[in-house]
C-alpha cells in the first residue's frame, strides 16, 4: 500500500534570502586532497603551476561559489611564512594534525591562485593554535594591503602585485577541541578575548573584511557553556559563528543516518539561542549569523566510549595511537605518483545514502536561510566533485548539490509544512562525541522550497527518507497563482550498493518523472523510497 503525505508551500512563508555561499566547499591537505589531488605536475592535464585542469574544469562547471581553506586541523600547526617565496627557500615541516610531512610546495599564494583559476571566492582560515595576533596581522597585510609596506611589498616581490580578494577570515579552527594543536578548551574567555583583538586588527587593516568566530565543534562535551563564555567576549567584533559537525552513525542504521536534519536542527537552534541571548545581554542591535563550514555524514564503527559526554580523554590518542619511536609521518609527495590515500575510501561507499544525508543537511540550511549565510561541504571536493589520482567524475552527491546551487541561491527560502508518514530512531553512542538520543515521529518526507519572485520561478526540494515505502505527495502550491509545473526530476536506485565512478559515471543520476501532474494549484507526485526529488514551477 502506497503511503500519502501532504506538503504546503506558500510564498508568504518567507524565511530569508539564500546566500550563494551556502553551497561552498572545504579544502584541507588531508591525504591526497592537495598533493596528488588538485596539484600533480605529473598529471596529463597539469597546467603551468602543476594544478590539474580536469579538477579545475569540474569546479568551474559546478560554479562553486566559495571555498574555505587551507584547514582544518592542519592549519593550527602551519607556519604560513614558511610557504611563501621561492620554492627552494621554503621550509618543510611536520604536520602534527594528520602525521604527514608538509613540503609547503602548495603554500599561501598557491592556494589563492588555485581559487582564482577555479573561479571561486577564497575564505581563509588563520592559525590561532601556534600563531598569534602579530602573525595574523602580518598575514592579512601581506594578502590584502595594496602596497607601500614591508609585507604588502613582499607579496608584490613574490609575483602578486594585486591584493588577493579575501573577504572572509576564519579566526582559528575548532579551537575548543582537545585534539587541536594549541587548544583553548580550558580557557574559553581567553579565546574570546584573543578572537576579539584579532578581529579588530583585521578590520583596521581592511574595513570591508568579515570575521568568523571558531565556535564549539561537533557538539563537544562542553557545548554550549564554552560557546557562551567565548562568544560574549567577541560578539561585537565578529560577523559569524562557525559550526562543524560530522554525523557518524552505526553501520547500516539508515534511519539515524537520514535523520541527520534533526541533529543539525538541534545544534543550529541552540547556537541561535546562544547568539540571541548574548545579543540581549549586551544590549546590541547586532544580529549574529552562522557559517556551517564543515559537515559530513557516514557510517562509523564502535570505539571506546568515555562515560557520558563529559568523559575522560587521553589527548595524546585523540586521532591516532601515537607511538613516539615509530616513524608515523607520511610524505604526501608519494601520492604524486598515483598512490591513493587510505582515508578516502569512505567517500566512494553508500553513495545514494550519502547523497540523501548531505541533501538533508542542505535543506536544513535552507530552512534557516535567515541566519545561516555560509556553509562548506567537507566532501564537496572528493565526495561530490569526485577525483582520484587520475580521473574526475560526479558522485551521486554531486547532483542534488549542483541542483541546489543552481536553483536555490539568490532566491527567497520558503518554509514548507509537511504532514505524512513518520519514523523513529534509536539512541546510539559510537564514541565520546558521536552520540545521539532517540527521535520519535520524524517526517519521512523532508522538504524545502525557494521562490525567485522576480523570475517567476519556484522550486520545491523533497527527500523520501522511508526505507520501505514509496510515498504519494500532494503538493499544495495554490499560493503561487498562475504558476505551472515545469518538471519533476528524481534520483534514486534500487541497488544501494551501486555508485558512480569514472568507468560508470551514470549509475545514479537524476531523471525526469513523467507521471507527475498539476491540477487546480496542487501537484501530485509519487516519490520513490530513499529518493531525491526536485519539482520546478514557473509562471505561465
TrEMBL record:
Keyword Nucleotide-binding attributed: no
Alpha-L-arabinofuranosidase C-terminal domain segment(s): 293-531
Enzyme class: hydrolase
GO molecular function ontology, one term from the record: alpha-L-arabinofuranosidase activity
Catalysed reactions listed for this entry: Hydrolysis of terminal non-reducing alpha-L-arabinofuranoside residues in alpha-L-arabinosides
Highest taxon of the lineage: Bacteria
Name of this chain's protein: non-reducing end alpha-L-arabinofuranosidase
Amino acid at each position: 500500500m502506497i503511503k500519502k503525505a501532504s506538503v504546503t508551500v506558500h510564498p508568504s512563508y518567507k524565511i530569508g534570502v539564500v546566500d550563494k555561499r551556502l553551497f561552498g566547499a572545504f579544502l584541507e591537505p588531508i591525504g591526497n586532497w592537495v598533493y596528488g589531488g588538485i596539484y600533480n605536475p605529473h598529471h596529463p592535464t597539469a597546467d603551468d603551476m602543476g594544478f590539474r585542469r580536469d579538477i579545475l574544469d569540474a569546479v568551474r562547471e559546478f560554479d562553486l561559489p566559495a571555498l574555505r581553506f587551507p584547514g582544518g586541523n592542519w592549519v593550527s600547526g602551519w607556519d604560513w611564512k614558511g610557504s611563501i617565496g621561492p620554492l627552494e627557500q621554503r621550509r618543510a615541516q611536520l604536520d602534527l594534525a594528520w602525521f604527514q610531512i608538509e613540503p609547503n610546495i602548495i603554500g599561501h599564494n598557491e592556494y589563492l591562485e588555485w581559487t582564482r583559476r577555479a573561479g571561486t571566492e577564497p575564505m581563509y582560515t588563520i592559525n590561532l593554535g601556534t600563531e598569534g595576533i602579530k602573525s595574523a596581522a602580518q598575514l592579512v597585510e601581506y594578502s590584502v594591503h595594496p602596497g607601500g609596506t614591508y609585507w604588502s611589498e613582499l607579496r608584490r616581490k613574490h609575483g602578486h602585485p594585486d591584493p588577493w580578494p579575501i573577504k572572509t577570515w576564519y579566526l582559528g579552527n575548532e579551537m575548543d577541541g582537545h585534539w587541536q594543536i594549541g587548544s583553548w578548551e580550558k580557557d574559553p574567555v581567553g579565546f574570546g578575548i584573543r578572537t576579539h583583538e584579532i578581529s579588530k586588527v583585521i578590520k583596521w587593516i581592511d574595513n570591508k573584511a568579515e570575521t568568523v568566530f571558531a565556535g564549539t565543534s561537533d557538539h563537544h562535551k562542553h557545548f554550549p557553556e564554552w560557546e557562551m563564555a567565548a562568544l560574549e567576549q567577541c560578539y561585537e567584533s565578529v560577523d559569524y559563528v562557525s559550526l562543524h559537525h560530522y554525523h557518524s552513525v552505526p553501520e547500516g542504521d539508515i534511519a539515524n543516518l537520514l535523520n541527520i536534519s534533526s541533529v543539525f536542527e538541534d545544534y543550529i537552534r541552540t547556537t541561535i539561542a546562544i547568539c540571541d541571548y548574548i545579543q540581549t545581554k549586551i544590549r546590541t542591535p547586532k544580529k549574529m549569523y552562522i557559517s556551517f563550514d564543515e559537515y559530513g555524514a557516514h557510517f562509523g564503527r564502535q570505539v571506546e566510549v568515555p562515560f557520558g559526554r563529559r568523559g575522560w580523554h587521553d589527548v595524546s590518542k585523540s586521532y591516532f595511537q601515537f607511538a613516539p619511536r615509530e616513524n608515523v609521518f607520511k610524505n604526501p609527495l608519494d601520492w604524486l605518483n598515483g598512490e591513493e590515500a587510505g582515508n578516502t575510501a569512505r567517500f566512494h561507499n553508500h553513495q545514494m545514502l550519502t547523497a540523501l544525508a548531505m541533501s538533508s543537511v542542505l535543506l536544513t540550511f535552507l530552512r534557516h536561510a535567515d541566519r545561516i549565510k555560509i556553509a562548506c561541504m567537507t566532501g564537496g571536493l572528493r565526495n561530490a566533485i569526485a577525483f582520484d589520482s587520475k580521473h574526475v567524475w560526479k558522485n551521486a552527491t554531486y547532483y542534488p548539490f549542483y541542483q541546489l546551487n543552481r536553483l536555490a541561491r539568490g532566491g527567497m527560502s520558503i518554509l514548507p509544512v509537511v504532514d505524512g508518514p513518520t519514523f523513529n530512531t534509536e539512541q546510539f553512542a559510537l564514541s565520546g562525541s558521536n552520540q545521539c538520543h532517540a527521535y520519535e515521529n520524524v517526517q519521512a518526507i523532508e522538504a524545502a522550497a525557494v521562490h525567485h519572485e522576480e523570475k517567476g520561478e519556484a522550486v520545491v526540494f523533497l527527500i523520501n527518507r522511508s526505507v520501505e515505502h514509496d510515498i504519494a505527495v500532494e503538493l499544495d502550491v495554490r499560493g503561487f497563482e498562475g504558476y505551472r509545473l515545469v518538471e519533476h526530476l528524481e534520483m534514486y536506485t534500487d541497488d544501494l550498493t551501486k555508485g558512480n565512478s569514472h568507468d560508470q559515471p551514470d549509475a545514479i543520476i537524476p531523471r525526469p518523472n513523467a507521471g507527475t501532474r498539476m491540477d487546480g494549484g496542487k501537484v501530485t507526485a509519487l516519490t520513490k523510497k530513499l529518493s531525491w526529488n526536485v519539482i520546478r514551477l514557473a509562471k505561465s
